[in-house]
Design goal:
By secondary structure, the chain is an all-alpha fold. The protein has one domain (5-256). The protein contains 12 helices and no strands.
């Protein structure tokens, strides 16, 4: 039996607020909003599409929260917009026509690998010669990052949990060390990926609008508030949160399997 209307609205708002906050810091908010919508009675495909549409404004709010860092980022990093848009649309199309079994098996391994890569950022940068001295020569890694970003966006349009961790790992390999700048770029690319996916889901009538309206408000509040909280916590604390969220997501998905 579904919960009373007030409880339904409260759960939807709280899940979106938490998802928006987590997405602004590290990504992975879908693992809160998606299960919450299933608990509220939506089928898995509708819950996934509804979550994507509802959480997108939160990504926009989180991007706005990091606008100061985005102003100083290098222009070549913005090339990753292209694979973000193409991959996001392709992933949304796959959700409608492809069984989720293949992605379900790959997701925990992808998130675990990305979390370990992010945790070992400095050692990886030394190994790949993308440390501070090589930051301005990282263009040779850009082509690989574009391909990687396409597959991240493909998965993001399909389901989306963990794309923040994957993008942070890729940005660290490219030589970025400022966690706030990385979060700003990650949120910007998430806006692109989830934006085109949301448009596809809306055009395909795959969303449940009553929950979208409530969750949009929660996601925006959580996104803006999460960015401010990240600055107050400091870089070390935020990095630890990113790693904990990554391991938590990976473990939960392994258990679910």
């Amino acid at each position: 039996m579904p919960p009373p209307q007030f409880t339904h609205a409260l759960v939807a708002f709280a899940a979106a607020f938490a998802a928006g906050s987590i997405n602004s810091v590290a990504g992975g908010g879908t693992l809160i909003s998606f299960p919450a919508l299933i608990w509220l009675g939506l089928n898995s495909v509708t819950a996934n599409a509804t979550s994507t549409v509802a959480i997108w404004p939160g990504s926009l709010g989180a991007m706005w929260g990091y606008r100061r860092e985005l102003r100083t980022t290098r222009l070549r990093m913005l090339l990753l917009i292209v694979p973000s848009l193409i991959g996001g649309m392709s992933g949304a199309w796959l959700l409608k026509f492809t069984p989720p079994s293949v992605f379900d098996k790959l997701v925990p391994f992808l998130i675990l690998f990305a979390t370990l890569l992010f945790m070992a950022q400095e050692a990886v940068q030394r190994l790949l010669k993308t440390s501070e001295a090589a930051k301005h020569q990282s263009s040779k890694w850009l082509a690989g990052a574009i391909v990687f970003q396409f597959f991240v966006a493909l998965y993001g349009g399909y389901f989306g949990a963990g794309i923040g961790i994957l993008m942070l790992a890729a940005l660290s390999v490219l030589g970025l060390t400022d966690i706030h700048e990385m979060n700003g770029l990650k949120n910007f690319f998430a806006v692109c990926i989830n934006g085109v996916a949301a448009l596809y889901f809306i055009a395909s009538n795959m969303v449940y609008w009553p929950d979208v309206v409530i969750m949009v408000l929660g996601a925006i509040a959580g996104g803006v508030g999460g960015a401010g909280l990240a600055r107050k916590l400091g870089r070390t604390a935020v990095r630890r949160i990113v790693i904990c969220i990554g391991f938590g997501m990976a473990i939960s998905l392994f258990i679910k399997k």
